[in-house]
Design brief:
The chain is about 70% helix and about 0% strand. It is an all-alpha fold.
Length: about 120
């Protein structure tokens, strides 16, 4: 919604308000869930998993940056923001419904590094 709103902005104040909304949305829909998913899916090597996930976000940003630059050059900035919002929506829907599972147990798997059932006694 915030990214699409950029295409409708009429002055600088609109951009500031929308940037705040986009920032909050990014934290609540990308950063926090990413860390939560990593904690659910990894019992070992969580730091490595987090760094790979953050690298993936950066790589996606690099790819989208080139795409959006081309969109702006060919279609103008307002249309580009609308296309960018559509791309984000499609990625979110596909990821949310088909790729992301909150816990590995939801799809009959175990977290990476799972040691089996521990009854609290050490042998």
């Amino acid at each position: 919604m915030g990214v699409f709103g950029y295409s409708l902005a009429q002055n600088q104040f609109h951009f500031y308000v929308l940037a705040f909304i986009v920032g909050i949305a990014y934290i609540t829909t990308a950063q926090i869930p990413m860390k939560m998913l990593i904690n659910n899916w990894f019992q070992e090597k969580r730091g490595l998993a987090t760094s790979i996930a953050v690298s993936g976000i950066s790589g996606g940003g690099a790819i989208l940056s080139v795409m959006i630059s081309r969109f702006i050059a060919n279609y103008g900035w307002r249309s580009s923001y609308r296309m960018y919002a559509l791309i984000i929506l499609v990625i979110a829907i596909i990821s949310g419904f088909f790729l992301i599972h909150l816990k590995p147990e939801d799809i009959v798997m175990t977290p990476y590094g799972h040691k089996g059932h521990d009854d609290g006694k050490h042998k």
